[in-house]
Amino acid sequence: MSKTKKSNQQIAMMVGRNTIFGNLFLSILKLFAGFFGHSQALISDGIDSLSDVFSTIIAMIGVKLAARQADTSHPYGHERFECVAALILSFIIAFAGIMIGWNGINSILDGSYALKEVPGFLAMGVAVVSIAGKEGMFWYTRYYAKRIRSSALMANAWNYRSDALSSIGSFIGILGAMLGWPVCDSIASVVICVFILKSAYQAFMDAVSKMTDQSCDKETEEAILNTVSQVEGVARVDLVQTRQFGSRSYVDIEISAPSNLTLLEGHNIAQKVHDAVEKEFPEVKHCMVHVNPYFTVPPQKTDPEK
Questions:
Q1: What's residue 99's pLDDT?
Q2: Which string of DSSP letters, residue by residue, matches 282-305?
Q3: Helices and strands (H and E) in the chain: how many
Q4: pLDDT above 70 (res 153)
Q5: Helix axes 151-178, 2-36, angle to 10 degrees
Q6: Which of 10, 45, 110, 185 could form a disulfide with 173 if both were Cys (CB 3.0 to 4.6 A apart)?
Q7: What number of other Cβ atoms are within 10 A of residue 176's Cβ?
Q8: Rounded CA separation 103/186 (Å)
Q9: Bridge partners of 244?
Q10: Is the CB of residue 269 less than 8 Å from the CB of residue 257?
Q11: Contact 257, 289 (CB under 8 A)
Q12: For the chain, how long is the longest CA-to-CA vector?
């Protein structure tokens, strides 16, 4: 188990470091192009990318805390610290989006957009680079988030997807301003705000679901049931229940075994089920197995009066 945790932590740190460098590069590029290319939308996009650096650092801290071994204060482990990090990330993402949207709305209402210079091809080119870069970060982070079942990384992945959509908004705003509608650049900032808030909501709900004992998906439960039913000695699978615990999950299983087995034989079958589930599903933190008696012939009811 500890080896798996360490491996997952190393993967999360690698993804975090790589995306930090990518976000720093894109934020500097977008802020430079926004200022010198006269695009408020691109400046807003650059600030959002800069906030992603701090968001990624928080995600890395959450993953590191979640990988700590169980102790007397937390006998079930620290996996939910990752969910806490994801919740913090969702609020940071939402705050950044609200500030960007507020600036865009003020620009529209006071008419200051009309006094700004029209964005040039520099801003448009950087917006295209940003779309490709952020979409690439989304798929890269999402792949590893699903692989190690990390809430914090998945929150960051959706953040990058919203950034890619934001950059599309920047591109459209810049293009509209270049075509003679300068208000489009400010409107793009408001659109960016909406995408960022949607990303914050997705990150928030993902973290909440993993902190409130939500079950695993149906495909996982069916796969567990199939694994258990193939274990030698299992006559019937009576129950499979799962609950998510941060990036890990707990499994409760009830099986039926022949009623004429000894206690030791029933225990050995339960142990085989336990080992098979934890081997086939590394995300399972612990599997509890209960054995019920299976009667090939229903037991005879005794008459209480005799």
A1: 79
A2: TTEEEEEEEEEEE-SSPPPPPPTT
A3: 8, 3
A4: yes
A5: 20
A6: 185
A7: 18
A8: 8
A9: 249
A10: yes
A11: no
A12: 102
Please tell me the distance from the alpha carbon of residue 223 to that of residue 3, in angstroms, as a whole number: 24
Residue pointed to by tokens 């800069």: 50
- pLDDT of 114 reads 52
- pLDDT: which is higher, 28 or 161: 28
For residues 16 and 160, the answer to whether their CB atoms sit within 8 Å is no
Q: What is the pLDDT of residues 210-235, one digit of tens each?
A: 777 778 888 889 999 999 999 999 99
- Residue 2, pLDDT > 50, answer no
Q: Residue 274: pLDDT band by 50, 70, 90 thresholds?
A: very high
- For 302, the token pair is 């005794």
Q: Which helix (H) or strand (E) holds 45?
A: helix 40-66
β-bridge partners, 240 = 253
Residues 149 and 188: their CA atoms lie apart, in Å, by 34
Give the other-Cβ count within 10 Å of 110's Cβ.
10
Contact 41, 173 (CB under 8 A): yes
Judged against a pLDDT cut of 90, whether residue 38 lies above it is answered with no
The percent of the chain in helix, strand and coil, each rounded to the nearest 5, is: 70, 10, 20
How far apart (Å, rounded) are the C-alpha atoms in residues 261 and 235?
12
Residue 305: pLDDT band with limits 50, 70, 90: low
Give ∠ CA 42-22-27 in degrees, rounded to 5: 25
Backbone angles phi, psi at 238, to 5 degrees: -90, -30
Per-residue pLDDT band at 13 (split at 50, 70, 90): confident
Alpha helices, DSSP H, located in 112-213: 121-148, 151-178, 183-211
DSSP character string of 239-265: EEEEEEETTEEEEEEEEEEETTS-HHH
Residue with tokens 């801290």: 61
